[in-house]
Amino acid sequence: MTYSSSLENSFSIIKCKAFYKTFSISIGFLLCFFSFSAFSATESEISQIRDAAEEYVTSTIDNPIGGTLKADAASIDSRIFATNCPSGLETSSSSTNPNASNITVLVECPEEDWRIYVPVRLTRTGPQVTLTTPLSRGQIISSSDVTISMVDLQRFRRQGFSSVSEVIGAKTKKNLQSGDIIEERDICVVCRNEIVTIKATKSGMTITTKGTALTDGTHGEQIRVKNSKSNRIIEGRVTGISEVTVVF
Questions:
Q1: Which of 20, 87, 200, 230 has its CA 20 to 30 A from that of 103?
Q2: Is the Cβ–Cβ distance between 185 and 217 less than 8 Å?
Q3: Which residue from 80, 31, 66 is spatially nearest to 150, judged by alpha carbons?
């Protein structure tokens, strides 16, 4: 055999080995691809996972009073491993904050040994008292000045009012514009130097008298008032327009 023939045979062997190596890699890649695709979640399975996460949130978080709660699960990568769960999906979450804007829900199938964490966004809407006309500082709010609007409670986190009865008769502490949501700091349900009704409650009995408020107050706040008859200064809780209740 000549040197050139030997060299040609060597090149042929190298080419053959390279071909088989490339062929093996290609086959391996295809097998991995089809194997991976076979175990990837279907559109139906992904939809079931998202629905389960949303249902968990809406069933465990209370709706705002007079409002609504909407849960929207994040998109899920279609390449995840998931299968139909024979006995149904299980859901849980470590989050306990009912006012959170996002909750991560664990969706799992113990029988098939897989689990997925799904972020769920919450949108809360609720009634808030809103002005229909501009008001100047010191004006008394009437029923024609206000209405109820449904607002996104995630964006409006300040203390407002959900019923018009809570603000009618109250006095504004600053200038307000039409469309403004009335906040507790915008009004005084009981205003300083105003004559108020003092309700003294003890053992189921209620005694009523008059007094003077020494500070501004909104619903539920504790303020100081001066009894008009005895001139005693006492502390009471604001329970209504120009009303303070003292419990002995």
A1: 87
A2: no
A3: 66
Q: Is 150 helix (H, G, I), strand (E, B) or coil?
A: strand
Dihedral through CA 63, CA 168, CA 171, CA 189, nearest 10?
-60
Q: What is the DSSP string of 180-227?
A: PBPBGGGEESB-TT-EEEEEEEETTEEEEEEEEESS-B-TT-EEEEEE
Q: How far is CA 86 from the centre of its chain?
A: 32
C-alpha–C-alpha distance, residues 186 and 184, integer Å: 5
Residue with tokens 């915008």, as numbered in its chain: 186
pTM score over 0.85: no
Measured CA to CA, the distance from residue 216 to residue 171 in angstroms comes to: 10
N-term to C-term CA, the chain: 120
Each residue's pLDDT tens digit, 46-61: 999 999 999 999 999 9
